Amino acid sequence: MYVPKHFEITDVKVMHELIHDYPLATLVTMSANGLNANHIPIHLNAMPEPYGTLQGHVARSNPLLEDINGENQSLAIFHGPNAYITPSWYETKKEHGKVVPTWNYVVVHAYGNLQVVDKPEWLRAQLETLTDQNESQFSEPWAVADAPTEFTEKLFESIVGIEMKITKLLGKWKVSQNQPMQNKVSVIKGLKDKQQQDMADLVGKNEY
To answer: What distance in Å separates the CA atoms of residue 204 and residue 55, rounded to the nearest whole number?
Structure first.
């Protein structure tokens, strides 16, 4: 991934927060037929430091499992908010007109070697943790234990765990850092008018 210095994020905590908030990963592996991509909800375990471990599950029938040999590096991509930025929002357009469209986005790339985890107790714990994380936003959160045991046990037989210890993290926050303050202010207003509050908040943060 091309990351100009002014868009680079090196703070592991910030990257971990994005993975936690946007857990659907694009998991890229190398298969016998070339690159393969799957879209899998992932739970981040912060240990071991410094980068942590990604944990998920797939159907036993998923060809992804054939790509896992403990040697080939895999890539998990996590996408945060993104937004088209029209040059019409820039205050400097009125001054000199030297403006062009762009796209703001935040993304994290996590690298490591995938492993298969075929242990019923691990799989149940992974499913419960992932479910609890995503159900916490609801007033009446659903839990794995709410479903009949016979039903869930049968489903468990059809899936298998996957795990990736992260060896490298790359973060790119392209959120108008390269624009003068008057343009940032007008971009934030434009984003709010388009009801893209998440990106407006990112543009408004001074630490990026």
So the answer is: 32
128-to-16, 132, 146 alpha-carbon distances in Å: 20, 6, 11
| Per-residue model confidence as pLDDT tens digits over 61-118 | 999 999 998 788 999 999 999 999 999 999 998 888 888 999 999 999 999 999 999 9
Per-residue three-class SS string for the chain: CCCCHHHEECCHHHHHHHHHHCCEEEEEEEECCEEEEEEEECEEECCCCCCCEEEEEEECCCCHHHHCCCCCEEEEEEEEEEEEECHHHCHHHCCCCCCCCEEEEEEEEEEEEEEEECCHHHHHHHHHHHHHHHHCCCCCCCCHHHCCHHHHHHHHCCEEEEEEEEEEEEEEEECCCCCCHHHHHHHHHHHHHCCCHHHHHHHHCCCC
Model confidence over 117-133: pLDDT tens digits? Answer: 999 999 999 999 999 99
What domains appear along the chain, each with residue ranges and CATH number? Answer: 5-200 (2.30.110.10)
